[in-house]
Write a structure and sequence with these properties.
The structure is a single chain. The chain is elongated. The protein has a 3-stranded antiparallel β-sheet with strand order 1-3-2. Helix content is 72%, strand content 10%. A hairpin with a 2-residue loop joins β2 and β3. It has 6 helices and 3 strands. By secondary structure, it is mainly alpha-helical.
């Protein structure tokens, strides 16, 4: 692998760790996904630990989480006792679904707070309007993510 590609690969793996962390997951989960996306091939449990410079326990915990979420898949190979992991064919769909659900949840939570503000109260009119706008923003983001999901899956 050329130095340029190796540097970009490393930067991408780091970026994925940061992006996933901003969504509440461990940076190691993102780094695992980044490595699997960039390389495009199944990697053994021990390869992941060595490549990412983290403990086997950390790989185990994060890989289990990613498998449960449908972001990566676990493979077994005949005659080989190691577990192998690869990016799931549905990993991008899973990411969109997760983001869409987060946006819908935020829309609902903000709307609930907005609805708790007293009606016909001049002091509450501004906050009610702004919170309502934020709730609509999150709902619109969820709709946009649904459209992106449909576009990626060819359902549009």
């Amino acid at each position: 692998m050329s130095d340029t590609i190796s540097t970009i690969r490393s930067d991408f793996i780091t970026l994925m760790g940061q992006m996933v962390e901003s969504h509440g997951l461990s940076p190691i989960s993102g780094r695992i996904m980044g490595l699997l996306i960039f390389d495009g091939e199944a990697r053994s449990f021990s390869d992941l630990a060595t490549e990412l410079g983290v403990s086997r326990g950390s790989i185990s915990a994060n890989a289990r989480l990613l498998v449960a979420r449908g972001s990566i898949m676990k493979e077994n190979r005949p005659g080989d006792r190691q577990d192998y992991f690869r990016i799931s064919d549905q990993s991008f769909d899973v990411m969109l679904q997760t983001l869409m659900q987060r946006m819908l949840d935020m829309s609902g939570r903000v709307r609930e707070l907005s609805d708790r503000l007293p009606a016909n109260d001049a002091e509450g009119d501004g906050p009610r309007r702004r919170l309502g706008g934020l709730s609509q923003f999150y709902a619109a983001m969820a709709l946009g993510l649904r459209q992106a999901q449909d576009h990626l899956t060819g359902d549009e």
